[in-house]
From TrEMBL:
<feature type="domain" description="Xylose isomerase-like TIM barrel">
    <location>
        <begin position="19"/>
        <end position="287"/>
    </location>
</feature>
<dbReference type="InterPro" id="IPR050312">
    <property type="entry name" value="IolE/XylAMocC-like"/>
</dbReference>
<keyword id="KW-0413">Isomerase</keyword>
<dbReference type="InterPro" id="IPR013022">
    <property type="entry name" value="Xyl_isomerase-like_TIM-brl"/>
</dbReference>
<dbReference type="Pfam" id="PF01261">
    <property type="entry name" value="AP_endonuc_2"/>
</dbReference>
<dbReference type="InterPro" id="IPR036237">
    <property type="entry name" value="Xyl_isomerase-like_sf"/>
</dbReference>
<dbReference type="GO" id="GO:0016853">
    <property type="term" value="F:isomerase activity"/>
</dbReference>
<protein>
    <submittedName>
        <fullName>Sugar phosphate isomerase/epimerase</fullName>
    </submittedName>
</protein>
Length: 288
């Protein structure tokens, strides 16, 4: 049985109350945003880190991953990459201190052509991040969705280590690229280190750059993604089992490739997140 996680921020309760609620709901672990506010590495002293780790352990939880998504244009803009890479490294340091080896992130949409200057900029950034992660026996995990799985695999294959790997989100693939998540698991099987459990439906075709941001397009905004997932023109995030992710095949294929890691529930929309997440836990357990 894969452990079940909850994205604490999906509960909209703050970190400490969210941790307690995750335990009440029966989660095994949690994923936490560590980009700003109280979880920004710059705001957590060594003592505060130890206290937080001990508190999470006292609840009988563990951290499945930290979310280190810095938004904007990902790692496409060479003029800001030095700062973003440095902050990403500090988030990974925090993750390792708190007992997890995974930091999930969006890197921006990978261009199709390898000689595209944006591709080359992203490649340099990911190579540096991957080498650093590997030195800590850890991973930066790119979230699926902005590009088809086959193209993401070719990008990952071109890096010198698997320190940059994959956080597999089936709903993003269904909602934006129209890619098949089950085939995506098979394609990316050597890189999957963390997963999200989320469902959705694609309403009409959309350029992924309009959703996830790209140089020349608006920067990525989680708030805008959530708004579009609620009432936008192109896709909807739905409760598990109500969208187009074939979860019977999805979970079976994860088992087939030997994935032992977390199934972490992310809920970016809806007015009753606690109820939705409780239902999601029950939904996942039907397949275990």
């Amino acid at each position: 049985m894969n452990p079940i996680g909850i994205m604490v921020d999906s509960l909209r309760l703050g970190v400490r109350d969210g941790l307690k609620k995750a335990k009440e709901l029966g989660a095994d672990g949690v994923q936490i945003y560590a980009v700003s506010g109280e979880m920004d590495p710059a705001n957590l002293s060594s003592g505060a880190r130890k206290e937080l780790k001990d508190y999470i352990a006292s609840l009988g939880l563990e951290i499945s991953a930290l979310c280190g998504d810095l938004g904007g244009h990902g790692f496409q803009d060479a003029t800001v990459n030095a700062e973003k890479i440095e902050k990403s490294k500090r988030i990974l340091d925090l993750a390792v201190e708190l007992g997890t080896k995974v930091v999930t992130t969006h890197i921006g949409v990978v261009p199709e052509q390898t000689n595209d200057p944006i591709y080359e900029t992203m490649h340099r950034a990911c190579e540096e991040l991957g080498v650093y992660a590997k030195s800590l026996d850890a991973y930066f995990a790119i979230e699926t969705g902005p590009e088809p799985a086959a193209h993401l695999k070719s990008f990952l294959d071109s890096l010198s280590t698997n320190g940059v790997s994959v956080n597999f989100d089936p709903a993003n693939m269904v909602m934006v690229t129209g890619d098949d998540p089950v085939q995506g698991i098979i394609t990316l099987k050597d890189y999957i280190v963390h997963t999200h459990v989320k469902d959705g439906v694609r309403l009409r075709q959309v350029d992924p750059r309009e959703v996830y941001g790209s140089l020349g397009y608006k920067p990525m905004s989680h708030e805008q993604i959530a708004e579009d997932a609620t009432s936008g023109l192109y896709y909807r995030e739905l409760a598990l089992g109500e969208g187009h992710v074939d979860f019977a095949r999805y979970f079976q294929t994860l088992r087939d490739i030997g994935y032992k890691g977390y199934l972490t529930i992310e809920r970016e929309v809806g007015e009753q997140p606690e109820k939705d997440i409780a239902s999601a836990i029950a939904f996942i357990r039907k397949y275990q």
